[in-house]
Design brief:
mainly beta, 4-stranded antiparallel β-sheet, 1 helix, 10 strands, 4% helix
């Protein structure tokens, strides 16, 4: 997906698996206006069943692989500047610009919690 595609207002999700000989397949489309002006970050979970996306409106949208809304996570502190799924694809960690707070979303319970890193601002996020 190019930046120009996102900026035009429609984003096409391609195949979530990189299988030899498989062609890309359109899974769903979403309006960029759902994310503010455009989508800034998208991240599939490792099972390919959920995708998280966020943009300038400070809401992380979690959808299933068919485009059905699963959960919206409003961010309080700042724009989403990074996110990562745990290895099982059940927990999403969300980093916010200018904030020491990491938002954690649990896919099983649909609950949100926060971790205060006590840093001025987080600069990278990854599960180990």
């Amino acid at each position: 997906m190019s930046f120009q595609q996102a900026a035009r207002g429609m984003v096409a999700m391609g195949s979530f698996r990189d299988e030899p000989g498989a062609s890309s397949k359109l899974l769903f489309k979403t309006e960029a206006s759902q994310h503010g002006n455009s989508i800034a970050i998208m991240k599939w979970n490792h099972r390919g069943t959920l995708v998280a996306s966020c943009g300038s409106n400070k809401i992380v949208h979690v959808t299933d692989r068919y485009g059905k809304a699963v959960h919206d996570i409003p961010l309080q502190a700042g724009l989403c500047c990074g996110m990562d799924w745990d290895k099982d694809g059940d927990s999403l960690a969300i980093m916010q610009a200018g904030s020491p707070i990491i938002v954690l979303w649990d896919a099983n319970s649909k609950s949100v919690s926060e971790v205060d890193t006590s840093q001025k601002e987080a600069s990278a996020i990854a599960w180990s």
